[in-house]
Amino acid sequence: METVSSIMTTDPVTFKIPGTVSDAVNVLIKNQITGMPVVDASGRYAGVITRRDIFSKPEETQASMITRTQRPVELDTSLEEAAILMLQERRRHVVVVDSEKRVCGILTPHDFLRTVERDYGSVQVKDVMKSIAFPVWEGTPLRVIYMCMKMTGIFTYPVVDAQGNFRGLITDRDLFDRIQIGTERTDNSQTLSEDDPWSWEGVRNVVSYFIEKNKITIPEETLESITIHNPVVAHKNEKLQMAARRMRDGNYNQLPVVSGRNGLEGILLDIDLLSVFTHSDP
């Protein structure tokens, strides 16, 4: 039985509470990660914090208030059990702990891609694509897309033209890169230094402009200005061997799914591929 210890990222960056959200943001930015385990004062696992947690609760200033307490897995947990946990709870980060609840690794859907490619490569894309694909018109204002992301929790959208033809893809990161932020601080601002090259430019990519209530200016532009045209895609009837390899090689979290006859068919998220582990045999 293959266990999570064989695929996990070892010695992950962690964040200790108590601490501020600004402190957590600095750690995310400087390590170029989207989420991390949280530990308590004694160094034991206390939860997880991600950039999307920050996005969903922009008013919070204390990291403990946005830390999610999620069940970790242990070193000898099977890949199947960990994948099913991640899939059922739609979790992009699962922490691996030892017998004393000390963090020793972390899992994301990306860590499973090589196993999917190797053991479940003959499964077709159409059999695992489950995530909602909500197409948006390329003429939609950026302000509207920002509202959609914040209200729905959907962060990836296929883009279509007025005739419904597939034009490309946008993600939350594409939008964040275009948002203009002010640098006025409130009295409770903490650690984001103007001299730190990771601070304001990097901040956009983890939505931390919310944290200190900076002034936000969303450009008066439409989706067409930020759409990723000609994105790497998956085909509805192709095998997972190729789709998983494409995700792994390009470090993609998602691939639009197309077919030769109907154009856009949906979206394949890396977490969707974990459904192959719900079958007993590869």
Describe, in plain words, how this protein is organized in 3D:
By secondary structure, the chain is α/β, with parallel strands linked by helices. It folds into 2 domains: 4-118, CBS-domain; 125-175 and 221-278, CBS-domain (Roll), CATH 3.10.580. Helix content is 23%, strand content 21%. The chain is built from 8 helices and 16 strands. The strands form 5 sheets. The protein has a 4-stranded mixed β-sheet, with no helix packed on it. Strands 8-9-10-13 form a 4-stranded mixed β-sheet. Strands 2-3-4 form a 3-stranded mixed β-sheet. A hairpin with a 5-residue loop joins strand 3 and strand 4 (45-50). Helix 4 (113-119) runs antiparallel to helix 8. The longest helix is centred in the N-terminal third of the chain and has 11 residues, at 21-31. The two termini are 13 Å apart. 37% of the residues are buried. Mean pLDDT is 83; it is low at 181-215.
Strand content: 15-25%
Per CATH, the superfamily of the largest domain is: CBS-domain
Highest CATH level, the class of the largest domain: Alpha Beta
**Fraction of residues in helices?**
10-25%
Number of domains: 2
Major β-sheet annotation: 4 strands, mixed
**What would the average pLDDT be, to the nearest integer?**
83
How far do the termini sit from each other?
A: 13 Å
Helical/strand content category: alpha/beta
Which fold name is given in CATH as the topology of the largest domain? CBS-domain
The count of helical stretches stands at 8
Shape: flat
What is the CATH architecture term of the largest domain? Roll
